[in-house]
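quick one
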Amino acid sequence: MSKRKPLVAGNWKMNGSQALLGEIAGALVSYQGEAEVVVCPPFPYLAAARAALSAGVHVGAQNLSDQPEGAFTGEVAGAMLAEAGCGYVIIGHSERRALYGEDDALVAAKFARAQEAGLVPVLCVGETLEEREAGNTEAVVCGQLMAVIEAVGIDAFASAVVAYEPVWAIGTGKTASPEQAQEVHATLRQTLAEKSPEIASSTRLLYGGSVKADNAALLFSQSDIDGGLIGGASLTADSFLAICQAAQ
Ligand code: PEP
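structure w/ phosphoenolpyruvate:
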């Protein structure tokens, strides 16, 4: 494992309940591993999550507005998330890109707003199956990363996390092999290194896409994989705890 502190984030998406929060909080009380753990429930549970989770467990949001405040009905500002107790926010998840039309410019604007509010962005990048089969994986993921680097500057990545989430592996049960994931992670780290070797070596790169308790350890053992962004398996206390324990 690298010298970077591993990070495991659970993305509940539009799932969960107050009861699930109690179960996850209860399970994580016994967690004493190496990883930083982040729980990202839907907006209405954020403040309750902060109250329920142990102090060492972070709370993250799944989205934020690109605007600081104002007449934007239904949107949530970064400062509000910070006030609710969030330390992290997921930006540019493939579901936001595909279902809500978030393009690289909007993703970059949200990244900047997150940092203005003192939140650590977890920037998601990933290719579709079609893009992978056409041999475009590197161009797509590095393009998504470069779009944000060019907008906010490489120094902003001193306080950011990048998550490689192949779209074809999200919620499908198809996990990238450890070798496939490592190859893309190394490429992403190289892209960062071309701008700043220091930032490249300290930035945590998470893998996401059907990570489960039984495949997490092998994925996390790859040299450029610093933890995971977990969807479905973060909705069961036992499996989320086991995945956190696999990160060391
Ligand atoms: C995700 O949505 O970020 C994700 C990785 O989902 P899953 O683990 O269910 O594939």
